[in-house]
């Protein structure tokens, strides 16, 4: 087996885990911009990905056979070229389930319990109770679009809050804690049944602008919308119009079609919008979980077995 190249720093213990999973292999750790062309071309396995190594990693003389990304999203990789070369691709799906689920409920509670507005008023030393009646999550119907690892954890926690959970999944396959699963083709029916819509979809050609003008119109008036999936799955102008018309009562947004979100964008000035800078998946446990996935796959790869975790389908693009 050839070299293993990690674009991410590993702890001493993590280095030991990688070396134990692939005895005799040379492990090279370095920043993409600092690696030499030959180091990249000689790598059979790459942990992580960067546009800075793409040219050499895909060089005709490259030995690359498998990429384990450091992210769940793979839409920024040259998928067509990787598929053509039969390069295995695995991602870190599942690493984000806990932090993103906590982010979702943090966003929801910031609105339902007046926390976002109270934090702003605190800076002004202003004692100002809300004008309207506060509400609860209990008893509300939560719709999850894209019920994977994150969606399952979100559904579990939603049930603990006493919420009814429904989902939209390409396959329509049932999932734990989800009362009813719709297919993508039944999206508008599902949207009309939900008080809160949580988008966790990956970005593919099929999901581009999945949430468009018609989708937002299908949502209940006064519904909440949370996007922690991918920015490109939402038609931003359609979302803005729905918010400006008060059809959507609140939006918690962590991802956007254009990042960073331009300072001139109208989303910044809407009081019923909470914006976070694509941080929902961040956690101090990230590297630990990502390396666990890699090491499990590396053991199988070294034994010439099928990779057991997170093997990406090029046709599905996730």
UniProtKB/TrEMBL annotation:
Keywords: NAD, Oxidoreductase
Residue ranges constituting the D-isomer specific 2-hydroxyacid dehydrogenase catalytic domain according to the UniProt record: 35-307
Annotated ranges, domain D-isomer specific 2-hydroxyacid dehydrogenase NAD-binding: 105-280
Lineage: superkingdom: Bacteria
Keyword Iron-sulfur in annotation: no
GO molecular function per UniProt: NAD binding; oxidoreductase activity, acting on the CH-OH group of donors, NAD or NADP as acceptor
PANTHER family referenced in this protein's UniProt entry, alphabetically: 2-HACID_DH_C DOMAIN-CONTAINING PROTEIN, D-ISOMER SPECIFIC 2-HYDROXYACID DEHYDROGENASE NAD-BINDING DOMAIN-CONTAINING PROTEIN
Protein family: Belongs to the D-isomer specific 2-hydroxyacid dehydrogenase family.
Protein name (record): Hydroxyacid dehydrogenase
The species this protein was found in: Paenibacillus kribbensis
Source lineage: Bacteria, Bacillati, Bacillota, Bacilli, Bacillales
């Amino acid at each position: 087996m050839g070299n293993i190249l990690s674009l991410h720093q590993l702890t001493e213990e993590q280095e030991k885990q990688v070396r134990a999973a692939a005895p005799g292999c040379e492990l090279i750790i370095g920043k993409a911009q600092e690696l030499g062309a030959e180091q990249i071309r000689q790598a059979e396995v790459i942990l992580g990905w960067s546009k800075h190594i793409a040219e050499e990693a895909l060089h005709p003389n490259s030995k690359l056979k498998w990429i384990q990304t450091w992210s769940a999203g793979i839409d920024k990789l040259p998928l067509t070229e990787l598929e053509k070369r039969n390069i295995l691709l695995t991602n870190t799906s599942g690493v984000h389930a806990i932090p993103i689920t906590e982010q979702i409920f943090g966003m929801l509670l910031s609105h339902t319990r007046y926390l976002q507005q109270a934090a702003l008023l605190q800076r002004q030393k202003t004692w100002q109770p809300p004008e309207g009646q506060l509400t609860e999550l209990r008893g509300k119907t939560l719709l999850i679009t894209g019920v994977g690892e994150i969606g399952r954890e979100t559904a579990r926690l939603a049930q603990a809050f006493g919420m009814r959970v429904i989902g939209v999944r390409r396959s329509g396959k049932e999932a734990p804690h989800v009362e009813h699963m719709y297919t993508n083709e039944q999206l508008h029916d599902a949207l009309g049944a939900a008080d809160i819509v949580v988008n966790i979809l990956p970005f593919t050609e099929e999901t581009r602008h999945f949430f468009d003008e018609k989708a937002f119109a299908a949502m209940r008036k006064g519904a909440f919308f949370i996007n922690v999936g991918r920015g490109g799955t939402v038609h931003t102008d359609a979302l803005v119009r729905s918010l400006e018309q008060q059809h959507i009562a609140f939006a918690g947004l962590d991802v956007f079609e254009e990042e960073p979100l331009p300072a001139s964008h109208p989303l910044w000035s809407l009081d019923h919008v909470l914006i976070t800078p694509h941080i929902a998946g961040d956690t101090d446990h990230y590297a630990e979980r990502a390396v666990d996935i890699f090491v499990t796959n590396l053991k199988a790869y070294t034994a010439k077995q099928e990779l057991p975790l997170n093997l990406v389908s090029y046709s599905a693009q996730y």
